[in-house]
Design goal:
This protein has 235 residues and is mainly beta. The chain has a single domain, classed as Hexapeptide repeat proteins (UDP N-Acetylglucosamine Acyltransferase, domain 1, 3 Solenoid), CATH 2.160.10. The strands form 4 sheets. The chain has an 11-stranded mixed beta sheet. It has a 9-stranded parallel beta sheet with strand order 2-5-8-11-14-17-20-23-26, with no helix packed on it. The longest helix has 13 residues.
Amino acid sequence: MMFIGRRVKLGKHVFVGANSIILGNTSIGDNTKVFPLVVIGFPVRRKLTALKGEDPNYELLDGVSDGVVIGRECVIRSLTIIYERTELGDRVQTGHNVLIREEVRIGNDVIVGSGTIIDGYVTIGSNVRIESGVYLPPKTVVEDNVFLGPKATVTNDKYPASKRLVGVVIRRSAVIGANATLIAGVEIGENAVVAAGAVVTKDVPKDTVVAGVPAKPIMSREEYERKKREYELAK
């Protein structure tokens, strides 16, 4: 059963698929497509806990949700769940089984791959590509034009389980390879590259390529781009 809350504002030519649930003061921009089995505006834990003894039906959840802002020409694929107080820019696309928790800000022209978890209180710039299975915890900052490879993992706790959380910052145009792990508190510099499978325990300078466990510099971004061009031409 589809449910669209009484305060929801839909732009022109918005498509909402079967069995999707849109809650709270949600706003969805023109020409956005919401495919079946999507939940938008799911309430935060505190609000659910406050519903003691009450049946959490859609009307009740709709009443407590602050909603979500979704821009124009977005594509929200099936089984995506977006919590309240999150904002997506224009032309954002999610794959299947994506979880975006509360207080997330995503810019324009961003792709979020299937199975990715953006675990709340995360800022993502524009023109970012997030491949499948990526994990971004609270306090993560991802600037514009960043690429995150499949199953890249960011952490925010150096000594789990600690009460102190420290965010990771990924600067503009950085590349994070598949299965790389970024340890809490590190900064990946502008145009830096982290190779697949690397474990980054220290800051990575701008225009530097690192690899290994722990990650160490192996070349410059300039040399990386030269090798990339040679690879692309070798057909």
